[in-house]
Amino acid sequence: MSNDYVAMWKELGLNLEAHDALLSVLGNGYKDIYMSQKNRPEGMGYFDFVMSEVHGLRIKELMDERAQGRKIIGSYCVFVPEEIVLAANATLVGLCSGADFAIEEVEKYLPRNTCALIKSSFGFKLGKVCPYLESADMVVGENTCDGKKKGYESLGNLIDNLYVMDLPQMKSEQGRALLRGEYERFRSAVEKLTGVAITAESLSKAIKIVNAKRSAIHRMSELRKAVPAPISGLDALLANQVFFYDNPARFTESVNKICDELETRIKEKRGVVPENRPRVLISGCPMAVPNWKLPWIIETSGAVIVGEESCVGERGTRNLTDESAQSVDKMMDAITDRYFQVDCAIFTPNQARLSHIDEMAREYKADGVIHYGLQFCQPYIMESIPVERALEEKNIPALRIETDYGMEDAGQLKTRVEAFIEQLR
Amino acid sequence: MSNDYVAMWKELGLNLEAHDALLSVLGNGYKDIYMSQKNRPEGMGYFDFVMSEVHGLRIKELMDERAQGRKIIGSYCVFVPEEIVLAANATLVGLCSGADFAIEEVEKYLPRNTCALIKSSFGFKLGKVCPYLESADMVVGENTCDGKKKGYESLGNLIDNLYVMDLPQMKSEQGRALLRGEYERFRSAVEKLTGVAITAESLSKAIKIVNAKRSAIHRMSELRKAVPAPISGLDALLANQVFFYDNPARFTESVNKICDELETRIKEKRGVVPENRPRVLISGCPMAVPNWKLPWIIETSGAVIVGEESCVGERGTRNLTDESAQSVDKMMDAITDRYFQVDCAIFTPNQARLSHIDEMAREYKADGVIHYGLQFCQPYIMESIPVERALEEKNIPALRIETDYGMEDAGQLKTRVEAFIEQLR
Question: Which of A94, A245, B227, B237 is the most exposed place for a label (fewest CB within 10 A)?
Answer without folding.
Answer: B227
